[in-house]
Amino acid sequence: MKFGVVVFPGSNCDQDLVDAISTGMQQEVVKLWHKDHDLQGCDFILLPGGFSYGDYLRSGAISRFSPIMQEVIQHANRGGYVMGICNGFQILTEAGLLPGALLRNINQKFICENVYIKPVTTNLLPTRLLDVNKAYKIPVAHGEGRYYADENTLKALQDNDQIMFEYCSNASDTGEIYNINGSLLNIAGVSNDKKNVFGMMPHPERAVDPELGNTDGRAIFESILELVNA
């Protein structure tokens, strides 16, 4: 299994992802420059967090048109795996690979802290090995993370088991009080209807190394590897 991390101008979590996968998970990973058209034979494409193109216009709106996104879209349409984290999630919604949109946080402030999320289903690749009754502590760092979609889209996400994570308490309780950014249905991550493209706002790559004091994010990468390497 070969992973590729796309690097856009303004990405600042690309190396975090590379380290989490190469050192933390002992997997092959390469960086892919946004101007290239070559995915270098990667099986799993990752779009990292950061502020691609300075987040001008809307977060992800410009990077969606980077040359390599043509290859990423084709890879996804062929059934290849793609995952976007934070800014990467925003890029995937702008590219139409994931439903919905990420709006400004309800409090109009940038949020940078550890939060808790719980898997809504175990029928998605990143949640396959997770416990739906457990809260996972994962860092967030975003100003535009409020998930929004129309009623029909939200219903489809629920009916098709596409909601990946929701914000919760450290005891895995859910409710508006634990909704850090105003996301509809407390959504912290979703998949596409084919369940090969995933997006989440929290940063699991920042919760892999024990030296950071938190390894809850490791379970998400282990879940991905368990099925892909089966």
UniProtKB/TrEMBL annotation:
<keyword id="KW-0436">Ligase</keyword>
<comment type="subunit">
    <text>Part of the FGAM synthase complex composed of 1 PurL, 1 PurQ and 2 PurS subunits.</text>
</comment>
<feature type="active site">
    <location>
        <position position="205"/>
    </location>
</feature>
<dbReference type="InterPro" id="IPR010075">
    <property type="entry name" value="PRibForGlyAmidine_synth_PurQ"/>
</dbReference>
<keyword id="KW-0378">Hydrolase</keyword>
<feature type="active site" description="Nucleophile">
    <location>
        <position position="86"/>
    </location>
</feature>
<keyword id="KW-0963">Cytoplasm</keyword>
<dbReference type="GO" id="GO:0005737">
    <property type="term" value="C:cytoplasm"/>
</dbReference>
<keyword id="KW-0547">Nucleotide-binding</keyword>
<dbReference type="GO" id="GO:0004642">
    <property type="term" value="F:phosphoribosylformylglycinamidine synthase activity"/>
</dbReference>
<comment type="function">
    <text>Part of the phosphoribosylformylglycinamidine synthase complex involved in the purines biosynthetic pathway. Catalyzes the ATP-dependent conversion of formylglycinamide ribonucleotide (FGAR) and glutamine to yield formylglycinamidine ribonucleotide (FGAM) and glutamate. The FGAM synthase complex is composed of three subunits. PurQ produces an ammonia molecule by converting glutamine to glutamate. PurL transfers the ammonia molecule to FGAR to form FGAM in an ATP-dependent manner.</text>
</comment>
<comment type="pathway">
    <text>Purine metabolism; IMP biosynthesis via de novo pathway; 5-amino-1-(5-phospho-D-ribosyl)imidazole from N(2)-formyl-N(1)-(5-phospho-D-ribosyl)glycinamide: step 1/2.</text>
</comment>
<dbReference type="Pfam" id="PF13507">
    <property type="entry name" value="GATase_5"/>
</dbReference>
<dbReference type="GO" id="GO:0006189">
    <property type="term" value="P:'de novo' IMP biosynthetic process"/>
</dbReference>
<feature type="active site">
    <location>
        <position position="203"/>
    </location>
</feature>
<keyword id="KW-0315">Glutamine amidotransferase</keyword>
<dbReference type="GO" id="GO:0005524">
    <property type="term" value="F:ATP binding"/>
</dbReference>
<dbReference type="GO" id="GO:0004359">
    <property type="term" value="F:glutaminase activity"/>
</dbReference>
<keyword id="KW-0067">ATP-binding</keyword>
<dbReference type="InterPro" id="IPR029062">
    <property type="entry name" value="Class_I_gatase-like"/>
</dbReference>
<keyword id="KW-0658">Purine biosynthesis</keyword>
<protein>
    <recommendedName>
        <fullName>Phosphoribosylformylglycinamidine synthase subunit PurQ</fullName>
        <ecNumber>6.3.5.3</ecNumber>
        <ecNumber>3.5.1.2</ecNumber>
    </recommendedName>
</protein>
